[in-house]
Amino acid sequence: MKKIILRVAALLALPAALTGAVACGGTPIGENKSYYLQDDGIYPAVSAPYEEESRAAIERWKSAKSNKEEVAKEVAAELYAYACYNEEYLDRYVYFSSQTGYTDLGKDGYGNVTTQNYKLIINADEQKNQPGYKYHYTIKKVNEADGKMESYKNLFEQGRLRFVTDTTLLYRFECEEEDTIKYVTDAETGEQTDVLTCGWVTGKDWGSIDPPIEKREGQKLTLSGIEEDITALADNGEAVIHGNVNILADNILRSATITEGAMDGHTVYEITMELDIEVANTDKASQTMLKNANEASECKWIDDAEGNGPTITFQIWDNGLMKYYRMDEQWQGTMVYAVIFRFEGKATSSQEVWYSYSDGDTDMTEKLAMLDAAKQQVG
């Protein structure tokens, strides 16, 4: 991912519904730095917990002599599950995601909203005397709106940052005002980029205790264990799997293709999976995750105008670590905003996510300096 422009301008997507307003009060800290990933094309500098399982799945696909389409679907689902669950056991990783999209509320209006996430995790390691860190911001901007979405723009537009240091100490920042949310202007060219920024102020949680930033305890989950975990977490309103899809549910894939490429001297696999909406819409875990992510009381996937179901395209390195993923989907349902607003609507959604595992991209120096400056201002 390069510094100037992230290739997301043509995407359509719906962010998760917002239930809060922009922050008021707090100590002004300054503009978000919009950290760019420099090394998403460099081979991971960390070991992959599910490398052995991922390589075995790829070999099964390569050696298949019959039922190749079915084998491709099975292997694709397994590789996606392993790639997502690697994050539970990694030493460190960072990703940047951008999602822009269109929501049609019929007579109640429409909106085009961009949501961007930057999440950096360094898990605690007692043997190395390494504390855990998390730096995770979400910035959401309304690009265009009409009707009630325009009237209640502040429900859809905001910025939030959760900063955890010393494994458990949480410092929360909020967007200073919705008017500070904007697209970054490149200092060299003067052109507007596709990356959002905002002004931060200190939030309510300041040095409070948060769940520890550490690897999941115990031995890593088996494939069947991952399947059980997806369902259990969905019931608790949580998810490790990306895309709100129980990817290991029986027959949830309509089709899958796997291709090989190369980067930085290693093989990169690109996998495209199309969901079967009849299966996905009756799978309890998938439905629960979809509703939770979109604050919808009723929600189901629908095929697009060409009859294609939701599609996940992802790239993994040859060790199974996620390099990139994109999800294109459409769904309709009853959306709930700020508890009191309920709208019937349809959303067209697409999201792109880039990963890096390098020392440079996961360096905390600049971020910790920001926090130290904030602490001094707060007093």
TrEMBL record:
Keyword field: Signal
Leader peptide range in chain numbering: 1-23
Superkingdom of the source species: Bacteria
The keyword Signal appears for this protein: yes
Protein name (Swiss-Prot/TrEMBL): Uncharacterized protein
Organism: Candidatus Coproplasma excrementigallinarum
